[in-house]
Design a protein that fits this description.
This protein has 317 residues and is of the alpha/beta class. 39% of the residues lie in helices and 23% in strands. The chain contains ten helices and 13 strands. Bound molecules: zinc ion. Zinc ion binds next to loops.
C-alpha cells in the first residue's frame, strides 16, 4: 500500500511538473522601451504597468497579436510587436547565425513561418502611436511589391567581417521583409527565393512584367579596408522615385537608429532598366563587425523591415 502511494505521489509530481512546463513553455523577451502592459488584449484596455528590455516574462496565453505575461505580483497583456516570444521547450533554439544559414540553405518559406511566433521587436519608445496606426492603415493592401535579394549562386556579393556572404544576408532580409509586408496585405514577389544565380536583367524583367507598384533591390555594403564605416544608403534613379526613397530611407533610420548615409541619385543597372518605381537599398556594412552581427539577428531584420513597411505605407497613403 505504502509503495502504491509512493508511486502515485511520484506520478503526480511528474504530472504537475509537465503541466507547469507546458504553461511556461514560452517567455516574452521585452524589446520595446517603456512597453505598456494592459489589463486586456487591446489598446482599448487600461495600462497597468510598463516593462523594459531586457526583462523577460513567462507567457500565460496569446490572443491575436497580444500575449498575456506573468509579472509575478500581477498579470497583463503586451503587444507582440514589441517583444520576442521564446519557446523554452523548442529544441531548435539555434543561434541566429545557424538560422541564417538554414534559411540560405533551403531558401524555403516554411523556415520563416516557423519562426513567426517569435514576434516582432521594437526600438521605438512610441509604441502606442504605432499600435493605433496599425489597425487603420490599409495603404499596402493589394500593392504588388517586388523584392530583389541582391546576388546569389556563384555571385556571393560582398564578404562580411565573419566571412558571411552578402547574397545570404540579402535573401534572409527579403524573406523577413516579405513576411512583414504580406501581413499588411501586400502581394510580394521575390526575384529569387533560394541560393540560385539570377541575372540582373531577369530581375528587372520580373518587376516590369508584374507591373510591380514598387521594386526594392536589397544589398549590403562592404569596405574591408575601412572596417569602421557603417550605415545605410538608399539609391534611386528616376526623379519620380525621390519621394519613395525619402520615405523608405527615413523609415529605416527611424526604426533602426543606424548611421544615416543619405539618399542619392545613381545610375545603377537594376534601376535604369526598371520601368517601375524602384530603389536599391544598401542596408549596412557587413565589413563592420557590429553591423554584420546586427543583421544576423532576426530582431534587427524585423526592425529594419518595419522601417521599410512604414516608408511604403507613407508612400502609398
Ligand atoms: Zn550588393
Amino acid at each position: 500500500m505504502k509503495r502504491k502511494i509512493f508511486f502515485l505521489t511520484i506520478i503526480s509530481f511528474i504530472f504537475i511538473f509537465s503541466i507547469s512546463l507546458l504553461i511556461y513553455a514560452k517567455d516574452a523577451k521585452i524589446e520595446g522601451e517603456n512597453l505598456n502592459v494592459r489589463n486586456g488584449p487591446g489598446t482599448e484596455y487600461d495600462v497597468i504597468t510598463k516593462v523594459n528590455p531586457p526583462e523577460q516574462y513567462p507567457v500565460l496565453e496569446e490572443s491575436g497579436e497580444w500575449a498575456k505575461i506573468d509579472l509575478g505580483d500581477k498579470q497583463g497583456w503586451i503587444h507582440q510587436d514589441y517583444s520576442s516570444i521564446i519557446e523554452d521547450t523548442e529544441p531548435s533554439q539555434e543561434s541566429e547565425k545557424e538560422v541564417e544559414d538554414d534559411l540560405a540553405e533551403s531558401g524555403s518559406d516554411n523556415e520563416i513561418s516557423d519562426n513567426k511566433e517569435q514576434g516582432d521587436n521594437s526600438t521605438d519608445p512610441n509604441t502606442d502611436a504605432i499600435e493605433n496606426n496599425k489597425g487603420i492603415d490599409n495603404s499596402l493592401v493589394g500593392k504588388k511589391i517586388a523584392l530583389d535579394p541582391g546576388h546569389g549562386g556563384r555571385d556571393v556579393g560582398a564578404i562580411g567581417d565573419s566571412g558571411g556572404f552578402e547574397s545570404n544576408y540579402t535573401l534572409k532580409t527579403a524573406q523577413v521583409l516579405r513576411e512583414k509586408l504580406e501581413a499588411h496585405g501586400a502581394d510580394v514577389f521575390l526575384t529569387r527565393s533560394n541560393k540560385q544565380y539570377v541575372p540582373l536583367t531577369s530581375r528587372t524583367t520580373h518587376a516590369n512584367l508584374l507591373q510591380a507598384d514598387v521594386f526594392l533591390s536589397i544589398h549590403y555594403n562592404s569596405t574591408p579596408e575601412l572596417p569602421e564605416v557603417r550605415g545605410i544608403d538608399t539609391y534611386y534613379l528616376s526623379e519620380r522615385d525621390h519621394q519613395l526613397a525619402e520615405y523608405v530611407h527615413g523609415g529605416i533610420i527611424n526604426e533602426t537608429d543606424m548611421n544615416d548615409r543619405g539618399i542619392e541619385q545613381r545610375d545603377l543597372h537594376v534601376l535604369r532598366v526598371n520601368h517601375r518605381p524602384s530603389l536599391l537599398l544598401e542596408l549596412g556594412f557587413i565589413s563592420n563587425e557590429t553591423e554584420e552581427r546586427n543583421i544576423q539577428s532576426r530582431a534587427y531584420l524585423e526592425a529594419m523591415s518595419r522601417g521599410i513597411l512604414m516608408g511604403l505605407e507613407q508612400y502609398f497613403r
